[in-house]
Amino acid sequence: MGQERLDNANPTLFDSKPRHRPVTGTERDESVEDPIDSWEIFDLIRDINDPEHPYTLEQLNVVQEELIKVFIDEEETFVKVNFTPTIPHCSMATLIGLAIRVKLLRSLHPKVKVSVSITPGSHSTEESINRQLADKERVAAAMENQGLMHAVNECLRVPE
């Protein structure tokens, strides 16, 4: 958004999923613990804005519920999100991954472990970007960088 040269000047747009899923009886029962699932994670990240286009990551099919896995055991919850850049040489892939990670870190309980990575085979430098996104120290340093956090916050900004 706001760049002069776009990596993908004409992205394909996809239909959005319905906002609400059917609610089961146990989900209405406040006495039953309702563990987090892939749909809830998808719902948290679907409206993240693309850094280049006036569309959401869902509209561009960058994030998909099918690429989100939630693992829960008695000790911890682990969320793994794969995302698919619109083109294999997308220069914004690291920023998109960071925006997803920051959104989840801000939204989920601190005990939930989060992993964000590029869908295998979908980016020319996926290995390098995945290493950056998995490095807690690099992510923490990025979150302290005002310019980078401004870009991330623009991605996370709710449209008016």
Low-confidence stretches: none
The major sheet is characterized as:
3 strands, mixed
Domain count, please report it.
1
Rg to the nearest angstrom? Answer: 16 Å
CATH topology: GMP Synthetase, Chain A, domain 3
Oligomer: single chain
Biggest sheet strand line-up? 1-2-3
Total helices: the number is 6
Secondary-structure arrangement, i.e. CATH architecture: 2-Layer Sandwich
The CATH class is identified as Alpha Beta
Q: How large a portion of the residues is in β-strands, by DSSP E?
A: 5-15%
Question: Which H/E pattern describes the elements?
Answer: HHEEHEHHH
Q: Give me the secondary-structure category.
A: alpha+beta
Structure characterization notes:
The protein is α+β, with helices and mostly antiparallel strands and 160 residues long. The protein has one domain (34-156): Fe-S cluster assembly (FSCA) (GMP Synthetase, Chain A, domain 3), CATH 3.30.300.130. The chain is built from six helices and three strands. It has a three-stranded mixed β-sheet. Helix 3 (93-107) packs parallel to helix 4 and helix 3 crosses helix 6. The longest helix has 15 residues, at 93-107. The mean pLDDT is 89.
